[in-house]
Amino acid sequence: MTVRIDVVPTIPDARAQVKIKQFQALAGRERVGKVHIADSYLIDAALTPGELTLARRALTNSRVEASYMGRWLPAKFHWGIEIGFLSGVTDNVGATAKETIEDATKKKFKDGEQVYSAQVFFIEGNLSRTHIEKITASLHNSLIQSAKIFGTDLRKEARAIPSVPRVSLSGSSRVLSVNLEVSDGELIEIGGEGIANEHGIHRGPLALNFDSMVSIRNHFRHEGRSPTDAELEMLAQTWSEHCKHTIFASAIDGIKDGLYKTYIQGATEKIRNAKRKTRNGDICISVFKDNAGGIVFDDEYVITHKVETHNTPSALDPFGGAITGIGGVNRDAIGFGLGAKPVANVYGFCFAPPEDGRRLFRDPGKTQEMLSAKRIAEGVIAGINAGGNQSGIPTPNGFMLFDESYRGKPLVFAGTVGLIPKKNGERKLYEKEAKPGDYIVMVGGRVGLDGIHGATFSSESLSTSSPATAVQIGDPITQKKMSDAIVKEARDQNLFNSITDCGAGGLSSSVGEMAEQSGGVRVDLEKIPLKYPGLEPWQIWISESQERMTLAVPKAKWRAFSELMKSRAVEATVIGEFTKTGRCVVTYNGSTAVDIDLEFLHNGLPKKHLLIRKPPAVPYMELRVGKEPKDFSETILRMLTRLNLASNEFISRQYDHEVQSGSVIKPLQGAGRVNGDAAVFKPLLSSQKAVVLSSGVTPYYSNIDPYKMAACAVDTAIRNAVAAGATLDHLALLDNFCWASSDEPERLWQLKEAVRACHDYAIAYGTPFISGKDSMFNDFKGYDENGEFVKISVLPTLLISSIGVIADAEKAVSIDPKAAGDFVYLLGETHEELGGSEYYRMQRIVGGRVPSVDGKKNLKIYRALMHAIQAELVASAISLGRGGLAVALSKMAMAGKMGIDVDVGKMRGSAKHEYVKLFSESQGRIVATVASGASKKFEKLFGGLSMQKIGEITKSKILSIKSGKKKIAGIGIEKALEAYRGTFKNY
User: Fold this and answer.
1) pTM score, whole prediction
2) What does the angle CA 825 – CA 827 – CA 831 come to, to the nearest 5 degrees?
3) Which of 62, 197, 262, 778 is least surrounded, with the fewest CB atoms within 10 Å of its CB?
4) What pLDDT shows up at residue 345?
5) Is residue 459 within 8 Å of residue 776, measured between CB atoms?
6) Rg for the chain, CA atoms, rounded
7) Which residues are within 8 A (CB) of 399 and not within 5 positions of it... i.e. 6 or more apart?
8) Per residue in 343-362, pLDDT tens?
9) Which domains, ranges and CATH numbers included, belong to the chain?
10) Spatial separation of the C-alpha atoms in residues 121 and 135, rounded to whole Å
11) Which of 349, 340, 350, 343 is CA-nearest to residue 384?
């Protein structure tokens, strides 16, 4: 029998107040009165009346809430909306409620018994059905949630037995044979749309091109049989662009070893070889071979970092896509070596402007509408929040930028830093190897339909055929329990030999990868715990249900490992055994689902040679300098309100950066609470050492000059870190390429140029790449509100992340000036380099000169600044990036709530016009403030370098900018803060 328990607040409900404003914005202020919210728990289990009473008490905070058996109704309402999850969608609140009830009643639920959560909104007001449908659309995502609208007649049905979203599957347990002896057209259809059932309905994309399908057909001809459906699905996951990175691995334009080996891995090898000959030595511990990259933290610990993207799922279900992204990259830390503890998260969001009102549809019939730009942004931000905050991992650093090209697909970057001891006794914890005879153990969550075809789905453009089942929702609470049990206990008790994340491709990928370590594997699919019955063998094998890790546990240690996991309420199941047969063998109730040669699985993907073609140059619209204003105050204030420059405080204040207690340089800096470009934290509280994190992303330069774009991204990530106190001797990089239409020669030319710059500038600065990821088809192919076909491709976007170690956390530098009378220095040269700049974008100017990076000059400046910081001569420093000098000075003044008086008339470089001096985005520049008593020592360190004293800090609380004797801007700090904070103040 199903019973409803409704919980409602007995104190003013802040959630309801927020919803009132949202509903008024949708239907009109005068139409919406009060809003009441009830949290509903639908208990689908056999509980006695006494047990239900215990359950109700456990779900209620009696100090601020009341609860009712059955549906609660307010004394007055006109409409009601109930939002729940569709069947099979992960319901984290319901799962937690189930555990709560089990604890309260001391009674375990039986298989199939569940608790389902829902939220009910009761609205008072003069609202039509049209109004209420508009409000309902704003409350749910129809891809994963259900919505029920009801009126006051609900009072008659208040005691009705509620319906619940039970999963009811009638999947076959058969293993199917797939005939590939078909025409070329049919072969292409199978590779593109997937395996068809007996009714001719395709399962979903395999993302296998014709050459791959021919290779598979030829292999199984040699085997003397057709592949099974599970084998073909496994090959599709393993060979997907998402997992295999075929574009980076393929020969291109005469580069036979591909972009990755030649430029990214090649740069790191050259840098490591050079560093081994220096006093500081090679800082790299593990690069490009594990779930994350690792560098030396100190003599006893390794610090790791990995950044992933979760773009396509976030376009369909922003919250689920983002929380799954952050959860997955947390598991990359846990899967590094024998398990690193996640100690920090980072994020990056590329969104369409929230006011972008274009309606987009995935189908020509306009039944599959994409979410609005604002809904996507809100959902993604909330997803990263939930993933990090509920896992107890601080989020000290991130960015957000906007462009119309991200309307079809947002870019959602999620990263995690981990900490792991180098050794446990004589055993190196950053190394792992599954051995023949080890049990294959799946730990964490259970397997369901969520995530089917996730890897192949993410390897294609978002379109009509993109499957809803590819969307997953993570459960950070389940993952937190698993993480702590593994990293804090099982690892240090030496209970397993290897571990990896069960992410893209599910068990087919994680087990397949680990099988390379041992030389073979055998799996029994029927032993795998499921969320619900009825899954087919191939679905169990490739499902990407979250919160799962795959481990190699020696048989002699299984009992100890199993008992430890049980004691921590973490499910662990033996699903097979590692072998040395050279094959991956998977059975289901005695039937062979997979029997495939590991060599073919991992190395059978056919090689291809990519062709490139340089696209036409972007035309330049010249700025009419004759219209240059005499006073730039209003221009600077307008710049501070721009989406890409305004305060992200609303994100920084909801993402917990203080948990784990290691925060040093925080996301909001100074009395004015201004977003900085780097974060510093202590992952080990007993050590004085700290980690510095930053990033560089400059996509607006891409279409003008992709080589310079990538050079700027590398320089920015390094410069931001150095300005905060990092040293180049202990700094490493990560690359994340998000490209579009990567099968087009023009896009591949841009990619090659960008990767070439990564190579050149990583070597120039001696900063090795330790990890990376690419996402190659960030295109939306669909229809507009008129039913016309549209294709929206993201700007070629490269995120460079930097991670470094600071020897003394107390020497970290923030952006806020510290004292009136301190001198202001500008390091570096300013040139007429406004192409793709924020200033040109505000003026709607296309093209122009993209900033060049002079690595040799910049390296000398950065090293001099490093010495100055180590000598404690620098009071504050800020890297000049988007918005140029004017924005950097504004942020310093606002952060310190102090005045700054500068003269830009004698700046170094070729800049002549005042708008260029203020808004050029020339690279390699940093503003530093120095106490007057330390100025001589500071200037001596920069002898012969591009450095100039341009002003001083004042008590006036006014940013005053002169050019020679002419005043060109004067802005009060409070007015600047009002502009800076105003853009997102209602978020």
Assistant:
1) 0.91
2) 120
3) 62
4) 97
5) yes
6) 29
7) 347, 348, 349, 648, 695, 697
8) 999 999 999 999 999 999 99
9) 2-157 (no CATH), 283-431+656-809 (3.30.1330.10), 813-987 (3.90.650.10)
10) 10
11) 349
